[in-house]
């Protein structure tokens, strides 16, 4: 039964699906938005906060810490007065761009469709 749930043998071998592993690395729902913002280039915390205004300050802090801990985001501190902190993507974080683009394609196809047109698409 375990193998039926996954297209690969990873689930059968480890008890975890690849999707679960990805979600553990990314952490929270805001990770996708933070990664998308940082794909535009390095940003300071306040700039990120303005650009991703839907994220509360503590959630943004937690998300950045999680992404940094998992090697997707780099936190660089500059010895200025006051101290300047800049966030950017690591190679691992930048590599996630392909997955974000695929998600964007999916939402363009399925995200805004009313239920009636989705049913018509599925039945055709």
Features:
124 residues, HTH_HxlR, disordered N terminus, transcription, 56% helix, Arc Repressor Mutant, subunit A, DNA binding, 3-stranded antiparallel β-sheet, 8 helices, mainly alpha, DNA-binding
Please give a structural write-up.
- The protein is mainly α and 124 residues long.
- It has a domain at 28-107: Arc Repressor Mutant, subunit A (Orthogonal Bundle).
- It is built from 8 helices and 3 strands; from the N terminus they run αααβααββααα.
- It has helices at residues 10-14, 18-26, 30-38, 45-51, 57-69, 91-94, 97-110, 115-123, and strands spanning 43-44, 73-78, 84-89.
- The protein has a 3-stranded antiparallel beta sheet.
- A hairpin with a 5-residue loop joins strand 2 (73-78) and strand 3.
- The radius of gyration is 18 Å and the shape is globular.
Number of helices: 8
- The assembly state of the depicted protein chains is single chain
Describe the main β-sheet briefly: 3 strands, antiparallel
pLDDT averaged over residues: 84
- Portion of residues in helices? 55-70%
Question: SSE order, as H and E?
Answer: HHHEHHEEHHH
Short description:
With 124 residues, the protein is mainly alpha-helical. Helix content is 56%, strand content 11%. It has a domain at 28-107: Orthogonal Bundle (Arc Repressor Mutant, subunit A).
């Amino acid at each position: 039964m375990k193998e039926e749930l996954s297209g690969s043998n990873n689930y059968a071998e480890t008890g975890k699906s690849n999707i679960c592993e990805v979600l553990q690395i990314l952490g929270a729902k805001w990770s996708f938005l933070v990664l998308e913002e940082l794909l535009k280039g390095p940003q300071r915390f306040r700039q990120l906060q303005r650009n991703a205004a839907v994220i509360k300050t503590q959630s943004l802090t937690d998300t950045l810490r999680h992404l940094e801990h998992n090697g997707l985001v780099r936190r660089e501190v500059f010895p200025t007065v006051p101290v300047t902190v800049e966030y950017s993507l690591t190679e691992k974080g930048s590599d996630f761009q392909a997955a974000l683009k695929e998600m964007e394609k999916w939402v363009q196809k399925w995200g805004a469709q009313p239920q009636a047109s989705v049913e018509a698409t599925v039945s055709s």
